[in-house]
Amino acid sequence: MKKRNDEKEKNHHLRQKPRVMIVENDSLIAKDIKYTLESLGYEVTSIAFSGKEAIKKVKADNPDLVLMDIVLNGNLDGIHAASKIRKYANIPIVYLTAYADNKILQRAKITKPYGYIIKPFKDGELRTTVEIALYKHRTEQKLRESSDKLRKALESTVNALAYAAEMRDPYTAGHQKRVAFLTVVIAKEMDTPEDEIEGIRMAALIHDIGKIHVPAEILNKPHKLTDAEFEIVKTHSQIGYDILERIDFPWPVADYVLQHHERLDGSGYPQELVESQIKQGAKILAVADVVEAMLSHRPYRPAYDVTTTLEVITSKKETLYDPQIADICLRLFKENGFRFR
Ligand SMILES: [Fe+2]
After folding, report:
1. What is the CA(256)–ligand 1 centre distance, in A?
2. Which residue in 52, 103, 199, 216 has its CB near the most CB atoms, within 10 A?
């Protein structure tokens, strides 16, 4: 038992050594670098002599760093091989080359290398470059992890708020999720950047949060609302904004929520904004919100069918809804067979 523990201990210790892979077409130079690296305290996982071999060995050995010669045998040079490796593995790559002409440097830069060593080099140079590359990579990794954690915390905050709104109003339950689903599909069709879509999706998930301030009797009333009651319902956009502006979102989530009942011709609420004053995210949200609401049953009316719903969007595009967004939504339903799950 003790022997096995000792073995484990030894393996653990060995794993602590940074594992470097060498890609070098000259076997003598490769051996020399291997020797230097080992004497500097690194473990050399393997040596590859061509780009193709490098790609295969990175997959098999999963090293902590790749030392990549730019001039290699075969039809893949080091820069090509590096860009292929970076597509599937998050491993820092340090280039090794005898030439440092501008054209090569420019090509190499695109692959975001962690360092560049010009041959011939001194042991100290190799060590410094490898250490800096490993440190930079570890720091980036930690940053990525902490931003993932923050993103998850934000997501759970949004889910908790959505849950709060849905507990009070059974008609909001599911509505916000379905609106978020359609919103994302429309935004993707419009080639909206990934990060922006995330902001619009979060806004959609909580766009009716302000309804927690509207009395339940009004929300669940089985008849048409009186004008006075409707005025109370209308406050939910502003209340939603007041709640959400307290959260420091990296996107204008509170604005999207505030503006989701604004209409292009200024007939919406609460600020009666017109076309250019309404944020794109709010315009997408508006179309998705109306479509989902019409297709759903409400205490005071049955659900509309798809044809009637799409007719309303068609007749009101340009006056109420952004025509490009409306057209995308219509196409999704008519041609792509989009339906809420
Ligand atoms: Fe709303």
Report:
1. 11
2. 199
